[in-house]
Amino acid sequence: MTQPVIDTSPPVSDEVRQTTCYMCACRCGINVHMKSGRVAYIEGNRDHPVNKGVLCAKGSAGIMQVNAPSRLRAPLRRVGPRGSGRFQEITWDEALDIAAGWLGRIRHDDPAKLAFFTGRDQSQSFTSFWAQNFGTPNYAAHGGFCSVNMAAAGIYTMGGAFWEFGQPDWDRTRLMLLFGVAEDHDSNPIKMGIGRMKARGGRLIGVNPIRTGYNAVADDWLGITPGTDGLLILALIHCLFQAGRIDLDYLARYTNAPVLVDAETGLLRRDGAGKMLVRDRRSGALSAFDSPGILPDLAARDGADRTVFQWMAERYLDPAHAPEAVAERCGIPAARIRALAAELAHAAFDQAFELDQPWTDFRGERHATMTGRPVSMHAMRGISAHSNGFQTCRALHVLQIILGTVEVPGGFRFKPPYPKPSEAHPRPHCHAHPDRPLDGPHLGFVHGPEDLALDPDGRPARIDKAFSWENPMSAHGLMHMVIANAHAGDPYPIDTLFLYMANMAWNSSMNTAGTMKMLTDTDENGEYVIPRIIYSDAYSSEMVAYADLVLPDTTYLERHDCISLLDRPICEADAAADAIRWPVVEPDRDVRGFQTVLIQLANRLKLPGFTADDGTPRYRDYADYIVNHERKPGIGPLAGFRGDGDLTGRGPANPDQLNRYIANGGFFSTHIPAGADYYKPWNMAYQDWAVGMGLFDKPQPYLFQLYLEPLRRFQRAAEGHGDRQPPDHLRDRIRRTMDPLPVWYPPFGDTDVDTDAYPLHALTQRPMAMYHSWGSQNAWLRQIHGRNPLYVPPEIWARHGFRDGDWAHLISPHGTITVPVALHGGLNPNTVWTWNAIGKRKGTWALDERAPEATKGFLLNHLIHELLPPKGDGLRWSNSDPITGQAAWFDLRVRIEKAAPRDEADPAFPPVTSPVGRGPAYLRWRVGK
After folding, report:
1. What is the DSSP string of 772-789?
2. How many Å apart are CA 535 and CA 548, to the nearest integer?
3. Residues in contact with 841: Cβ distance below 8 Å, sequence separation at least 6, in sequence order
4. Farthest-apart Cα atoms in the chain, separation
5. pLDDT digits (tens, 9 = 90+) for 124-138
């Protein structure tokens, strides 16, 4: 009998193309398997420094993004009313002519009339360069409504922050403290790191109102009350000071703890060269902080002037910071807080170790070993997205620093090009002039009132009011305020709103219904209040319907991208690394990568920076820009394979650079030399290596800033000092919130709302299988998260008599939604939550109008407003952190009521007409033979 021949190992692919994933911001390396020129499947690249072959569900599902029915097919011009979704397909020449016509008139008249804001793209050094050369002051990316508190607090305090700026020393840490981290950010490296740490017997402690994801595998979980993380952290600092369990030598050598504070002004004492002054324990003399051979004295005095350390001890030893004083508000028993402080101290000091690795510090002192303190911390949006988030993030960094756990073996380590002091970053620029580029970068770090972005009359110079007295240190801008301010003409009207990957008509906005109305409102002449809207997206998202001109982007496997050291690189703590994406498949639609479209617009507009002296374009497309652009001589977007292909960091452009990256797996990595990989801010071997790499122009060692002098400068202005004065109605808020030592104050959602009427906190969290909004239209990922209930803790569940399948009204001061509910045992008892961005508007994303995302999926955004409720003072205050302008998404207060069962969540908006129609009921295709 003849047996059938079965091929048990058919070829998976006939070619593998290596590139960088874009299903989240993790930027993992991927192997894209091809059959007959089409994507067959995606796996992790085992040689890649980020993920080492590990790939999550999102990454594997990237194939469904490239095949999504929701992909836009051609440029679109609106032919129906805004919001209707009625468009006409046009050619690229027509689209670029329209856009260049609108933008050219603005640039010739007043470049500030263009507001150009981008979402979670990964080319912000490029988009900001374009906007700067256009000349508008109104540019920023999505960080202002994501985690600017985290980034700004980290850079101002210690020269870098969590996630893209640094990582735990996974192979040596023994205790990790995790604050407010959702599952979608940096997920593969965190999962891999936690696994390695726990395999060595290390402990993970989660501090989060919600126990999911990383917190679900934590050895201990503290279900803290939202917005009180700062109280908990300051209580831990109190306990450590009280027990004397702090690293005094580290504080004296590497921080501004020994710097003298002028008792009269509250400013740091400085010498004639502007360097901070300390008293040398050896000689007793006042010296510049970086003087060779000195050992700064933490206990020094000079008349009435005391050190920062003494200010800290006085403040944090106050009984108001004791665990017993804060336990009820935090929802964490005092004994548990004290036990956590003891555990941190035990790991940092009793389990300390030394590496036999000599190194030389910036004062010229030679150290025979490196001291390891195996405590690490990580945090993200959960503590950032509150109106007290900046000071809370600062407090967390102070906790790390007093334990001596930053940039030491076993602790938190920076990734190149960080660390660098806040002074090394640019100040913001805002002076717009017709037909001229902006006078410098839009975004930066202010160090006092003199750096604010104000017009000659003292009014905000930017449409989002970033870097104004309302939000002085808003390093990432305030994207959530752009549409509301433009609609109100406050501080001035704009002509064109230009958005990329920012779904502001839906899940990227607070006050979603109000935002859609603002986008469609007309004036007394019947003209749109926001006259023109240009939008670029790869998919038929909710925002597409509100655009006048749509410039369709490619998917991430169809374009060039640059994950650059100038922007958001893929570095690890022991290596500098960057990466590219490249078109592993060609688009089957009339679409173009947005970055190339910007270059084509720049060429039409003849923008400086993109145009040679003879008027010819400098760059054909984005790939040409990546290779040939230089931010300064020898420094370009990519650090690898420069010059003849053998130069790293600095060197002439290499025309074959992209091919070298492709041949290397889509990335480049170079390791920090041994002995330079710890103590980076003070280690001269690292400083010299960074200069050679082009990360710095010269060594720039610095001290960690426990006492943040720029905050004190703003306080002094509020007290009446200096030439630039804040408006009277902001003086008290600036004095109260901008304290140079970390403080805690209640979130504005608690003080500006009747908490008896709205007793519950409401939060959103992104699931591990999704990222922003585009993941939930993915045919594979929809099977994991096609709908989202409101999760309710057991006490509230029982009190309201909820049962499986029930619905509830969730009510905030801004509105009401009606949603399905589910029981969740891992919750703070006064907190409800749901997954973010699952809900979709009917007619969008090529989904059926009966799809669960459009019926059972919902957004908490409908309950949040970009403005706080009226206070009775005649003013409307932004729902933001008063220091950075970070959107305070997580300050939301609500109450819950049982509702009758229904078929759909409410509010349910009328469907929009989709320019791509509806996708098939089933996605079927065959790859290869």
Report:
1. TTGGGG-TTGGGT-S--P
2. 8
3. 506, 542, 854, 909, 911, 912
4. 104
5. 999 999 999 999 999
- Quote the percentage of the chain above a pLDDT of 90: 90
DSSP tag of 57: H
List the one residue out of 844, 875, 870, 839 whose CA is nearest residue 857: 839
Q: What is the pLDDT of residues 125-183, one digit of tens each?
A: 999 999 999 999 999 998 888 889 999 999 999 999 998 899 999 999 999 999 987 77
Model confidence over 410-444: pLDDT tens digits? 999 999 999 999 999 999 999 999 999 999 999 99
pLDDT of residue 1 exceeding 70, the answer is no
Alpha-carbon gap, residue 171 to 202, rounded angstroms: 10
Between CA 241 and CA 246, with CA 242 as vertex, the angle to 5 degrees is: 30
Amino acid at 593: G
pLDDT exceeds 80 at position 718: yes
Omega prior to 907 cis, within 30 of 0: yes
Count the helix, strand and coil residues of the chain and give each as a percent rounded to the nearest 5.
30, 20, 50
Region 52-71: what's the mean pLDDT? 94
Query: How many C-beta atoms surround the C-beta of residue 722 within 10 A?
Result: 14
Residue 287 phi, psi (nearest 5): -140, 155
At residue 929 the predicted structure's pLDDT band, cuts being 50, 70 and 90, is low
What percentage of residues in the chain have a pLDDT greater than 70?
99
Compute CA distances 307 → 162, 223, 396, 423, whole Å: 28, 36, 21, 22
β-bridge mates for residue 880, sequence order: 887
Tell me, letter by letter, the H, E, C secondary structure of 809-832.
EEEECCEEEEEEEEECCCECCCEE
Tokens describing residue 874: 């005649």
Q: Note whether 19 and 582 are within 8 A (CB).
A: yes
Report which of 269, 407, 295 is spatially closest to residue 704, judged by C-alpha positions. 407
Looking at residue 390, its amino acid is: F
Hey, what amino acid is at 809? Answer: H
Query: What does the block give as tokens for 376?
Result: 């690490």
Residue 357, pLDDT above cutoff 80: yes
Per-residue pLDDT tens for 75-108?
999 999 999 999 999 999 999 999 999 999 999 9
First to last CA, the chain: 29
Q: 525-578 pLDDT, tens per residue?
A: 999 999 999 999 999 999 999 999 999 999 999 999 999 999 888 999 999 999
What does the pLDDT read at residue 25?
83
Q: Which helix (H) or strand (E) holds 710?
A: helix 709-718
Query: Residue 10: CA atoms inside 13 Å, Cβ hemisphere, count?
Result: 7
Mean pLDDT for all residues in the chain: 95
Neighbour-count burial for 255-279, b at 16+ CB within 10 Å, e otherwise: bbbbbbbbeeebebbbeeeebbbbb
At position 503, the amino acid (one-letter code) is: N
Name the band, by pLDDT with cuts 50, 70 and 90, for residue 741: very high
Q: Based on the number of CB atoms within 10 Å of its own CB, is 599 exposed (0-12), middle (13-18) or buried (19 or more)?
A: buried
In the sheet that holds 561-563, the strands lie side by side as 561-563, 575-581, 667-671
User: pLDDT at position 187, please?
Assistant: 83
C-alpha to C-alpha distance for 400 and 422, rounded to whole angstroms: 18
- Cβ-in-10-Å burial (0-12, 13-18, 19+) of 784 comes to middle
Residue 646's Cβ-count burial label (10 Å; 0-12, 13-18, 19+) is: exposed
* CA dist 643 → 425, 639, 656 (Å): 27, 10, 9
Ramachandran region of residue 720, left (φ > 0), alpha (ψ -120 to 50) or beta? Answer: left
Alpha helices in 529-650 (DSSP H): 594-605, 622-628
- Closest-CA residue to 465 (of 481, 483, 446, 445): 481
